[in-house]
Amino acid sequence: MAHENFESVNKTPMKAKSAGASTKQDFLAHGQVKHIDVTKNPGIVAVVDGMRSMAFTARDLARAADITDKMLADTECGVILTLAGSLISAGLKKVFVDMVRNNMVDAIVSTGANIVDQDFFESLGFKHWVAEDKLKSGLFDGELREHALDRIYDTLIDEEELRICDDTTQQVFDAMEPGAHSSREFTRALGEHLDKSGGPKCADSLIYECYKRDVPIFCPAFSDCSAGFGLVAHAVARGDSPKVTWDGGKDFYELTQLKIKNPSTGLFMIGGGVPKNFTQDIVVCAEVLGHDAPMHKYAVQVTVADVRDGALSSSTLKEASSWGKVDTVYEQMVFSEATLAVPLIVGYAYHKGSWKQREAKRWATLLEPAMAGA
Amino acid sequence: MAHENFESVNKTPMKAKSAGASTKQDFLAHGQVKHIDVTKNPGIVAVVDGMRSMAFTARDLARAADITDKMLADTECGVILTLAGSLISAGLKKVFVDMVRNNMVDAIVSTGANIVDQDFFESLGFKHWVAEDKLKSGLFDGELREHALDRIYDTLIDEEELRICDDTTQQVFDAMEPGAHSSREFTRALGEHLDKSGGPKCADSLIYECYKRDVPIFCPAFSDCSAGFGLVAHAVARGDSPKVTWDGGKDFYELTQLKIKNPSTGLFMIGGGVPKNFTQDIVVCAEVLGHDAPMHKYAVQVTVADVRDGALSSSTLKEASSWGKVDTVYEQMVFSEATLAVPLIVGYAYHKGSWKQREAKRWATLLEPAMAGA
Amino acid sequence: MAHENFESVNKTPMKAKSAGASTKQDFLAHGQVKHIDVTKNPGIVAVVDGMRSMAFTARDLARAADITDKMLADTECGVILTLAGSLISAGLKKVFVDMVRNNMVDAIVSTGANIVDQDFFESLGFKHWVAEDKLKSGLFDGELREHALDRIYDTLIDEEELRICDDTTQQVFDAMEPGAHSSREFTRALGEHLDKSGGPKCADSLIYECYKRDVPIFCPAFSDCSAGFGLVAHAVARGDSPKVTWDGGKDFYELTQLKIKNPSTGLFMIGGGVPKNFTQDIVVCAEVLGHDAPMHKYAVQVTVADVRDGALSSSTLKEASSWGKVDTVYEQMVFSEATLAVPLIVGYAYHKGSWKQREAKRWATLLEPAMAGA
Amino acid sequence: MAHENFESVNKTPMKAKSAGASTKQDFLAHGQVKHIDVTKNPGIVAVVDGMRSMAFTARDLARAADITDKMLADTECGVILTLAGSLISAGLKKVFVDMVRNNMVDAIVSTGANIVDQDFFESLGFKHWVAEDKLKSGLFDGELREHALDRIYDTLIDEEELRICDDTTQQVFDAMEPGAHSSREFTRALGEHLDKSGGPKCADSLIYECYKRDVPIFCPAFSDCSAGFGLVAHAVARGDSPKVTWDGGKDFYELTQLKIKNPSTGLFMIGGGVPKNFTQDIVVCAEVLGHDAPMHKYAVQVTVADVRDGALSSSTLKEASSWGKVDTVYEQMVFSEATLAVPLIVGYAYHKGSWKQREAKRWATLLEPAMAGA
Question: Quick check: pTM over 0.90?
Answer without folding.
Answer: yes
